[in-house]
Design goal:
- This protein has two domains: 105 residues, no CATH class; 117 residues, no CATH class.
- 63% of the residues lie in helices and 0% in strands.
- The protein is built from twelve helices and no strands.
- α4 crosses α5 and α7 packs antiparallel against α8.
């Protein structure tokens, strides 16, 4: 079951409201490097479109499929920085190949990388693990923190379900570690009480997953299937951290 709120699902990697004046000043500025790259483009439409892709990835942490799907206030603000008419952007949307070329140039010039490239994914896992262990924050909070972590380090955001599964896996690892710590501290009677809810949960899962005698479904319940559904084993294949 997804833990993402409606707000998180709707705002992830896209514009939902107009940027505030403070956000415009912080993310939609154009420095010397920006202007040098922008002015190598031919035509006002390409210069403005390139500039908006640069400022969008700086603000959202991703590059939009439609680079012109930007709030009017942001278009006007960036166009003013370039002393050009914001209406020139209309013709930029006509050439997809140009957008893709600009994306490749922006990634090279500014050092953006995909989520699956390099070691950033593993570093995020370590960071989330420490955060979840020390703070006990809700998954939705960890999701927002992970998004901010990626944006800050110029890692392009993956699809939301990828990040959601990562947070869920981290929480499961932390819960397992916590159980082990508490179990080691408990005496025999306390340990039995700790294990009782887990045993009840496992019996409930097995009883609900096992087909009824009347079922004609060909899948048969077995230990291998149960193991493959374990979120712990699924997460364990991706990385291991033990303290």
């Amino acid at each position: 079951m997804s833990f993402l709120t409606t707000r998180q699902e709707g705002s992830y990697g896209r514009y939902t409201v107009e940027p505030s004046p403070e956000q415009l000043a912080r993310y939609f500025y154009l420095d010397d490097l920006d202007k040098r790259l922008i002015h190598t483009r031919r035509g006002d439409q390409n210069r403005l479109g390139f500039a908006l892709q640069v400022t969008t990835v700086r603000f959202l942490g991703t590059l939009l499929a439609d680079p012109t799907d930007v709030p009017r206030v942001a278009i006007t603000y960036v166009a003013a920085r370039l002393s050009m008419d914001s209406l020139s952007l209309e013709t930029y949307s006509r050439r997809t190949t140009t957008h893709n070329e600009h994306v490749a140039q922006i990634r090279r010039a500014y050092g953006y990388e995909n989520f699956g490239d390099g070691t950033q994914r593993f570093r995020l896992l370590l960071w989330l693990y420490e955060r979840a262990w020390l703070s006990g924050e809700r998954p939705s909070v960890l999701f927002d923190l992970a998004t901010a972590w990626l944006v800050e380090r110029k890692v392009l955001l993956p699809v939301p379900t990828v990040l959601e599964r990562l947070v869920t896996g981290v929480r499961e690892r932390v819960n397992l570690r916590l159980y082990r710590v508490l179990s080691n501290l408990a005496d025999g009677a306390q340990r039995a009480r700790l294990e009782q809810p887990l045993a009840s949960r496992d019996r409930y899962t097995a009883d609900n997953a096992r087909p009824s005698p009347q079922s004609s479904h060909p899948h048969k319940w077995c230990g291998a299937c149960e193991g493959s559904k374990s979120p712990h084993s699924r997460f364990h294949r991706g990385w291991t951290v033990e303290r």
